[in-house]
Amino acid sequence: MRLQFFFLIPLIVFSCASEKKPADLLVTNATIYTVDDAFNTVEAFVVKDGKILETGTEAQLTKNYDAREVFDAKGRTIVPGLIDAHAHLYNLGVTLQQVDLVGTKSYREALDRVVAFQQEKNVKFITGRGWDQNDWEIKEFPTKEMLDSLFPDTPVALTRIDGHALWVNSKALEMAGITASTKVSGGEVVLKEGEPSGILVDRPMYLVYNTMEGRTAEFNIQALKDAEEICFSYGLTTINEAGTTQAVIELIDSLQQRGEMELRVYAMIRSDSGTLDHFLNKGIVKTERLNVRSVKGVADGALGSRGAAMRAEYSDQPGLFGAMITTEKELKAMARRIADAGYQFNTHAIGDSANISVLRVYDEVLKDKSDPRWKVEHAQIVTPADFKYFSEKILPSVQPTHATSDMYWAEDRVGPDRIKGAYSFKTLLQQSGIIALGTDFPVERVNPMLTFYAAVARKDLEQYPEGGYRIQEGLSREETLRGMTIWAAYSNFEEEEKGSIEAGKFADFVLLDRDIMTVDEDSIPQTKVLSTFLNGKQVYTADE
Questions:
Q1: Which of 85, 395, 97, 376 is nearest to 241 (CA)?
Q2: Average pLDDT over residues 108-123
Q3: N or C: which end of the chain has fewer CB within 10 A?
Q4: What is the pLDDT of residue 214?
Q5: In which region does residue 267 sit, left (phi positive, over 0), alpha (psi from -120 to 50) or beta (all else)?
Q6: How far apart are CA 461 and CA 103, in angstroms?
Q7: 496 with 520: CB under 8 angstroms?
Q8: What is this structure's pTM?
Q9: How far apart are CA 223 and CA 118, in angstroms?
């Protein structure tokens, strides 16, 4: 009897051990914000085949799972993989191959950077991006004279930071056939003393762009890979590509299929006829890493270049109202076609006139649609009475750093009354129940921690203004993290597969060097990403 008892012991032990389930990765010793419905925190989770199996305590998961690898977070904070709900991935990559004018503090500094770039690269057509006259001592549009002097025979085209104005020299104007009599609807050839000044606003910009030599496949691949590397370094695992071409989408898909690009992309197709026709006829395209089911519309221009369409004239330039790039009639025809194809419509709207046009169109077209989740991108200046149009069908997609970048001059543009409907994130959230948050890079910086800080504190990096800019429209930290994860995923129809750390979802997560939910508010911008994981695989690690 005693021999039989001892014989059974190893069988019992072996039986217990065999009950452990296999797993690829156990993540432990962390403060993990799951961003589930209850906004629970846990200390560990397990991953298999790129997806989360279970969350819980280290003791519980160690008992239940046999993981091939253990990742010790050393007490640090983990959040779901961050989703940038409005950005320009390909454009970011392109800017890395051009003159970088972001952060220039004067007209002279911008010119110096162009000269230094050309001395190093000696290109046939000088291109660049990032200047903003509002950051210069003289807050006026630059002109072509100095570019002509420095580069009389080389065309120069420098895009404003928001992508809605272009600073060019005479050679570029000549190549594009632009003269004082050139008229293009949806924009302006700015004149000075009866001649083109060297500034093009919105649609006329494309006359210059169309003269540039086509970019090679190698250029485009390098641009996408460079942009992906930067995104991973900031904890971004999904990018909403806000307006792109069939060629770029197909390149992204091919790189992903070959395993040469891992970043997830929610692609909004451009509304030009060729791209629109192709995808609306093709239908929704969905893989684990690519989702093509939306159209990017552009109602108006930008506030900084006074191209945003306003109901009343600009307060700082009487007689100017901005311009609709796409009229309400055109928006309506496009919206009906998009709705019939089962696609989502995401429309850029900055000015109060553009916003109400988009909202009226959405409201009419979506009356009989059950779950469209159409988005207003930016929703920047909204007449207070028009907030009522936002709902579970019409969602706001905003970029918090726009508020803290524009706050120095926005009220000058629109006056003290209209500013009351500007950058109103809390009001938009209350109306729709969710708000999707992004950066709009490369218009703003890629770093999503700046998004988090601007949404919560409503301050710039100088911690200005004290108390926050229109702080009543700030978001809580929980609302902000949801807006950068699960709400952004929801706005993309992807809430069942990403946006939170829950069983069955992709194991996309980020290790931070501090707890952004509890640290002193003004230290949030200094937060560093230590590791980024996608499908349970580490795609970025910082040198600590």
A1: 85
A2: 94
A3: N
A4: 80
A5: beta
A6: 13
A7: no
A8: 0.87
A9: 19
